């Protein structure tokens, strides 16, 4: 059996060259994931994309068998990318490419010295979403499926935004709150409220401590209303939502409870009317 004549070289891939390779390729690649393409393209345009040694791979017939998303992203970005290119691989190589365990965002955060990495990744994703939608998390929840953030974007957000890691530490003692709201959403709430409210941080700690313990609450306390809303899904309509929409709903009612807590205003029940009410902002 003859040896494969495999070649490897480093070169600058231009958008026109990427287009040419894709147009000439006859290999039936995986279905294109446009969100993945756009994430890579943003990384390229914003200077986060690094050559990591993973080449664009071609088979013996000159077909692209690995790297189509990167090539489409180069086209979308309109910028040149320095990368490795490997030619001459057997067609059977396609059966083993990308079959190893991929590195998650949490893995990458761990490599960069962070702890509680899954929480950090979740809060970073929500933080970027909040900034993109003027803190309207219901709008974010409806758009979240249309834009997947890249690992580079999330790592950058955690790195430059120290308040995210601080929020993890602040929310860590409140185990019941994290259980009722969800760990990532609970931490994001502390992050969001701490950044938006004009109240002292100690008052915010008092609020979450009261939500956590649930003790000595008046019958019209906003804290009690929040606990009831979080614990009684049928009342709050939470059973009708899942994923990001459930998170956004919980954020909305928690902000409303916080605003009432700040004003010392009584509340008997708590809900967010998604079709008629603007998303609340913290006092």
Please characterize this protein's 3D structure.
This protein has 283 residues and is α+β, with helices and mostly antiparallel strands. The protein folds into two domains: 7-95, no CATH class; 105-263, no CATH class. It is 53% helix and 8% strand. It is built from 14 helices and four strands. The chain has helices at residues 15-24, 34-45, 68-77, 105-111, 117-132, 137-143, 151-160, 162-171, 175-181, 183-196, 201-213, 222-231, 233-236, 243-263; strands spanning 7-13, 56-59, 64-66, 81-89. The protein has a four-stranded mixed beta sheet. Strand 2 and strand 3 (64-66) form a beta hairpin. Helix 9 packs across helix 10. The model has no long low-confidence stretch (mean pLDDT 91).
User: Biggest sheet: strands, sense, closure?
Assistant: 4 strands, mixed
**Order of strands in the sheet with most strands:** 1-4-2-3
Number of domains: 2
Q: Any low-confidence stretches, pLDDT <50, length ≥5?
A: none
Judging from the principal axes of the Cα atoms, what is the shape? elongated
Instruction: Look at the helices and sheets and give the structural class.
Output: alpha+beta
Secondary structure tally, helices: 14
Q: Which H/E pattern describes the elements?
A: EHHEEHEHHHHHHHHHHH
* Overall radius of gyration: 24 Å
Strand content: 5-15%
User: Mean of residue pLDDT?
Assistant: 91
By DSSP, the count of extended strands is 4
Helical content band:
40-55%
Quote the distance from N terminus to C terminus: 74 Å
Main features:
283 residues; alpha+beta; 2 domains; four-stranded mixed sheet; 14 helices; elongated
């Amino acid at each position: 059996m003859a040896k494969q004549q495999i070649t490897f070289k480093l070169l600058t891939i231009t958008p026109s060259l990427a287009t040419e390779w894709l147009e000439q390729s006859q290999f039936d690649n995986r279905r294109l994931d446009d969100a993945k393409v756009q994430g890579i393209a943003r990384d390229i345009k914003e200077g986060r994309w690094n050559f990591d040694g993973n080449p664009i791979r071609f088979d013996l017939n000159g077909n692209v068998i690995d790297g189509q998303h990167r090539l489409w992203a180069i086209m979308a970005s309109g910028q040149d990318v320095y990368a490795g290119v490997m030619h001459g691989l057997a067609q059977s190589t396609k059966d083993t490419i990308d079959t190893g365990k991929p590195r998650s965002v949490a893995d990458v955060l761990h490599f960069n010295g962070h702890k509680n990495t899954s929480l950090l990744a979740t809060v970073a994703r929500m933080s970027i979403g909040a900034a993109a939608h003027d803190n309207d998390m219901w709008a974010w929840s409806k758009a979240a499926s249309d834009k997947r953030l890249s690992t580079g974007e999330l790592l950058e957000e955690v790195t430059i935004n120290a308040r995210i890691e601080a929020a993890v530490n602040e929310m860590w003692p409140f185990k019941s709150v994290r259980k009722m709201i969800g760990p990532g959403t609970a931490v994001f709430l502390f992050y969001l409220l701490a950044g938006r409210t004009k109240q002292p941080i100690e008052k915010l700690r008092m609020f979450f401590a009261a939500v956590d313990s649930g003790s000595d609450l008046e019958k019209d306390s906003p804290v009690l209303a929040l606990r009831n809303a979080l614990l009684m899904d049928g009342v709050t309509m939470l059973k009708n939502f899942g994923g990001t929409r459930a998170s956004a709903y919980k954020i909305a009612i928690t902000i409303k409870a916080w605003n009432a807590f700040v004003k010392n205003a009584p509340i008997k029940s708590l809900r967010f009317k998604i079709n008629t009410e603007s998303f609340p902002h913290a006092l």
